[in-house]
Fold this sequence. Notes:
By secondary structure, the chain is of the alpha/beta class.
Amino acid sequence: xxxxxxxxxxxxxxxxxxxxxxxxxxxxxxxxxxxxxxxxxxxxxxxxxxxxxxxxxxxxxxxxxxxxxxxxxxxxxxxxxxxxxxxxxxxxxxxxxxxxxxxxxxxxxxxxxxxxxxxxxxxxxxxxxxxxxxxxxxxxxxxxxxxxxxxxxxxxxxxxxxxxxxxxxxxxxxxxxxxxxxxxxxxxxxxxxxxxxxxxxxxxxxxxxxxxxxxxxxxxxxxx
Length: 224
């Protein structure tokens, strides 16, 4: 398979693992709220893919639940969320075909996720997947910064990176650095109205080939 890149980068939730729904439900279960607030939290969280969890906690607690937010609240929410996900993430399925694709691509591969770095590494290690990646970048670094760092590590321009993501946050990071991008739609379509290559999963080889052949730098063209 001809891949128009030198390095591949993968978001984790929704691209490597079918974990978005599990994480969404765990997020909703954190908060004591009425039905109206629950609907508002659900709408917010579904539209906030790729955003670090602590940023979500702060927004929900202060702007939806209208409660005073601080370090103690943040730590309590973070610990409860981690406990809720702990064992369940070990059994969520992989996105179809992604493991074979990574193993056969012949290119350096990285993970770029909003999940905490230690948590992402431990989860992928327990799943027997960490060894497939040259590096795992987590939420301590913005996705834009992670993509820039990966490009520097591999001594090439950002347009030689190809990022597989499933959220607007992923797309915006790719555009900020000018790397190539393919949207993954397996768990959701966050790209309505966007002119970009997409795949449902990594088993649809024809669509994957079409997506790869049509990738290009996502940096907006500026007229002189």
